[in-house]
Amino acid sequence: MTRSIQLRVPASTANLGPGYDSLGMALSLYLTPGAISLDPSKNLISRTLLDTLRAAHTSLPADSVLSIHIDNPIPTGAVGLGSSGSAVVAGVVLANWAAQLGWSRDKLLQHCVAIEGHPDNVAPSLLGGFVASVMSGGAAQGICRGPSRAHGATSRHVTHVLGNPNVHGKGTHLTKQALGCLLDDVVHQPYRMHLIPGFQQLKSALDTNPDVLGLCVSGAGPTRAHLLRT
């Protein structure tokens, strides 16, 4: 029997100022697995898929033929948009579907974090929206989720695992000055700003723009995240 799946996994921005390795938000830029090599040495999705099958002590049936196609507009490399996290989520979700593992959303998250090493990118890519995560006893917990236009990894065939429910809430009103202070950080941004040409000058210039609520380094950079008034 032929089965197929259509999967979209969003890029993400992480840290968001002071939330080092814990805060992340899904973006409306999607990796869509669709023909890539299954050679694990050539791409992270295939490597993650095969590693996940091994971790589950299973494999695909000997007579199965797996074909994957991918459309990936997310810039790869160290650019700060969570490309590796999106690839890891795609590989784990595809393994769960291909081998019919039946893993829960929490199990998927734990395995993604075990591969990626931290939850700030994989959590929003899997769950969607804004996610605050903590590591507790070696396990990741998505402790807070907020509304966002970007959904997590979605598929028409596995919505019981991956569907992102509508999240509604009333946000606290913050002034531009207060939000700017909330995005300040002393752990990682001071050491990464100098790697982004003109970051400090741009930050100073945007301080006078009423439509820009804040600016921070996206992930490890060099991408910048601007919070805009809409």
Automatic annotation (TrEMBL):
GO terms for molecular function: ATP binding; kinase activity. Keywords: Amino-acid biosynthesis, ATP-binding, Kinase, Nucleotide-binding, Ribonucleoprotein, Ribosomal protein, Transferase. The keyword Metal-binding does not apply. GO terms for biological process: amino acid biosynthetic process. It comes from the Eukaryota. Residues 44-129 form the GHMP kinase N-terminal domain. The keyword GTP-binding does not apply. One of its GO terms (cellular component) is ribosome. Pfam families: GHMP_kinases_N (PF00288). This is Ribosomal protein S5 domain 2-type protein. It comes from Catenaria anguillulae PL171.
